[in-house]
Amino acid sequence: MEKTEVSKDPKIEFLKKNLLYKQVKFALYGLIFMLIMGVFYREFSRPFFKDLSMEDQIFSGYMLSLAHGHSFSLFFLIPLGLCFFTFLIADKMDKEKTDKLIKVFRFYMIAAIGTYFLLLYKGVVHVVYFDPVAGISLQEADEMLYGANIMIRSLIYSIMHVSFGVTIVWYARILGKSMKS
Fold this sequence. Notes:
By secondary structure, the chain is an all-alpha fold. The chain is 82% helix and 0% strand. The protein has one domain (10-180): Four Helix Bundle (Hemerythrin (Met), subunit A). The longest helix is centred in the N-terminal third of the chain and has 40 residues, at 10-49. The protein starts with 9 loop residues before the first helix and ends with a helix.
């Protein structure tokens, strides 16, 4: 029995090697990171929760639990979704559009990581705030971290969050243009 050679389209091979594999790799690292963040949430908040009522535990741990859940969507679901939709129209992609998608996905990674770590910062401070000994407010943490200018965190968070949304729209626009051609 003879094996038949499957002809490989160089455009699709370039797309797979330079974008799709990187998106899947980022998503798998994101999945591992999400599991680590779940353990971090549980272990970090445990000593702060020991003297709190159940209601206060839920309230103080809310922001940090959001960080755990957001890591799943930011670092796993969205990259895999982008990879899936890119793969669906891979035959219509040329090198120029693939290069644009690679650039946009890099911006996405930066924006997602920046947005996430600011959310994590806010969650950690929120848990620590309820501790009777170490308790500091978000405003006090901002003053220590950002040199008494509490608007810097808001400005950085806004830039990262908007950049995150813009990169997804930008990516979708490039995919949409590729579908028309």
